[in-house]
Amino acid sequence: MSNAVGIYAVEDVLLVSIKDDITDSDVIELQDGLSEEVVRTGARGVVIDISALDIVDTFVGRIFAQLSGVAKLLDAETYIVGMRPAVAMTLVELGMTLPESNMALSVSQALRRIRANRTR
Amino acid sequence: MTVPGGRLVATVKLSTDRDVARARQAVSRAFDDLKARAIRKTRFVTAVSEIARNAVTHGRGGEMSIFVHDRPPGVSVICSDNGPGIENTEQAMSDGFSTGRSMGKGLGGARRLADTFELVSSPGSGTVVRMSGTA
Amino acid sequence: MPNRSDGKGLEIIEDDFDAVVNDWIEMQKDEGIQRTDLFSETEIHEQTRSFLRAFIHGIRAGGSVTDFSLEHKSWQELRDVLDDITRERIGRGVPAGEMAGFVLALKEPVFNRLREHYGKKVDTMLDEIVKFGSVVDELALFTNQQFIIEREQVIERQRDEMLELSTPVVELWERVLTIPLIGTLDSVRAQEVMENLLEAIVRHRAEVAIVDITGVQTVDTQVAQHLLRTAAAVRLMGAECIISGVSPKIAQTIVQLGVDVGDVTTRSSIRTALVHAFETVGYTITRRGGEAEQFV
């Protein structure tokens, strides 16, 4: 995987960090790599940190939506965290509101929510 | 091609997705130089990303020229591709229209995000998009 | 050295500097555009002198009066001085017409001197007058343009300030924000509301944002769309958006308009919205003493 994306396992959660110069092929690689990683590690949660991203366009937005769906099928709860205000406003303008994805303000908030949901 | 009142700051060849990222970076820098607010920059760079990708995936590659304007402060781009051209441009820009695997929000989205947007295309002659965003 | 062939007008200004300054100021007085109410005599003198000085410097730096173009680099100082004078005058409330009048009042003192100097040589005199006159005209035009640009910036700034004032985000509790909307919600204002709210969410690490529409006059399809888009953006940031102040009438309107609010949380009052917000961030309100009656 290119160094624009990093996947780290923290206990039973996979943390995905994305750098701002990500290309379309990096995103596609992430999509393939992440689902394999979920199965390999038996992760129960995935947290994708996009706070470094200035831009999320329709292509990247669509992949994010799919990532959440795929992880859900593999029994891992996915959170997209740290979206910048300007990115959120632009996505709304594009009509991409990611209704199927869980969103959180920060990595720690997402981790808290994953833990809370698992102990329920 | 020149844009009245604009300074050409970069020309980016568009043939791979790496070039799409380069186009985004070049336009980002132009907005940073103008000390634009984040929302202005993000909106326009997102639009640039859409049309640059369109040129790569549907237009067999092309080229993007980036201009900086001082009065009023802003950035404009001209993106031309070597593709087959678009038969029905209005249809292509409506949300939900797609020829490939995309969701079809790209061109219409770019038009909404840019302050001015102009698309010239006809079958067999490639597509040229000019658009601008104020800083 | 100044290019002396460039016109008698310039020569006159140089040789007779103090007298021209005085006449120019007199001229401003006669025209009723010398604002002694806004500027002191000293300030007016200083502005007038620095203007003329910059003019002479421009010529020395190679600026041409015959092919006058204010864009030329030799006129940088003159442009700056004009810029400063314009900005200062706007700051004190001088109207646009007077700004140009200030510059145009330079014509007569110089014309008078040209007339004295050339006497019967009418053709040469007219040439010089035309040449100098067109330079002054261009300077007046420039100040006018500067004036408009400056004004626009002032208006833009005031608009920004007004928008900011009209959309205050208030922290109600830790991680709970509210933005009370009042009046009309057009697309410019909706954009501003969204931006302020999202930035406040980041700043306060807020988990709930209450958009209170009690003070919004009418909710039509467009306003409803703005509200839903705000809610969608808040959700993308990872927070929950509650729209409060939905009166029975507004609720009916929304349904009649066929607007789908999806899963956006709505409440009739900010009070009930706050109760919901407390639950989300992990608090309950209980009455002290007695039977410990819950408000929730």
From TrEMBL, chain B:
Q: Which GO terms describe its molecular function?
A: ATP binding
Keyword check for Nucleotide-binding: yes
**Domain of life of the native organism:** Bacteria
Pfam families, A to Z:
HATPase_c_2
- Where would I find the Histidine kinase/HSP90-like ATPase domain in this sequence? 16-132
Q: Does the keyword Translocase apply?
A: no
UniProt keyword annotations, A-Z: ATP-binding, Nucleotide-binding
Q: Which Gene3D superfamilies does this chain map to?
A: Histidine kinase-like ATPase, C-terminal domain
State the name under which the record lists this protein.
ATP-binding protein
**Species name for this entry?**
Oricola cellulosilytica
Automatic annotation (TrEMBL), chain C:
The UniProt entry, under SUPFAM superfamilies, shows:
SpoIIaa-like
Task: Please indicate if the UniProt record lists RNA-binding as a keyword.
Answer: no
Which residue ranges does the record assign to the STAS domain? Answer: 166-277
The cross-references to InterPro entries, in alphabetical order and at most eight, read:
Bact_StressResp_Reg, RsbRD_N_dom, STAS_dom, STAS_dom_sf
Keyword presence, Nucleotidyltransferase: no
Its keywords, alphabetically, are: Phosphoprotein
| Name of protein | STAS domain-containing protein
